[in-house]
Please model this.
Amino acid sequence: MSNQDVDDRREYYRIEDTIALDFSLLSGSDAHASDPLHDNSPLFNLLSDLHLMDFESQHLLRHISERDRTLANYLKVMNKRIDLLGQVMVQSLLKEIGEPRKVSLSEGGVSFRHDRALPVGQLLVLRMVLLPQGFGLELRARVIHAQPHDDEFEIGTEFEALSDAQRQLLARHILQKQAQQRRLARAGQGPLGEPGQPSST
Model:
């Protein structure tokens, strides 16, 4: 990894979060393919596309709001209805992926516990559902460390080849979680957590 890559990674900030996550290993030709992600869950792919399309259309809605508030309000109601359908999809998807787990998340990568070590440099396909919004993201990541922790291993990964929309979704989720943690800390309902600390992922 170049010095520039290291500097870029240190610019990311991590949060302690609870998300649904599973992964599969990439090997052979899949690891070198330009688009190695698998279509092993049509429901997950549909949820992921739904949220990415919604995110990418936000600027269009802002332009419509400037010209026609009635139409913009109607479209916002339609978005809420789609969000409700998305929440139903999330509940079904959680049964497939598994119960939410604690992770350390940044725009650069994610760390999570696993029952065995993974080789450093191993490529993974991560499927994540960010809660409570239910954003579905399928991302490619590389293992950068696997450290023993009690009876498990702390697996640190670094995302690879994120699209602008995926990176912005992650950034928005992290900012929202940071704001929520600060509100809870001010209200005395819990610790601030670790927003604003350099990421080790």
The helical segments are 3-10, 29-32, 42-56, 58-67, 69-97, 164-186. The beta strands are 13-26, 101-105, 110-114, 123-130, 135-149, 152-160, 197-198.
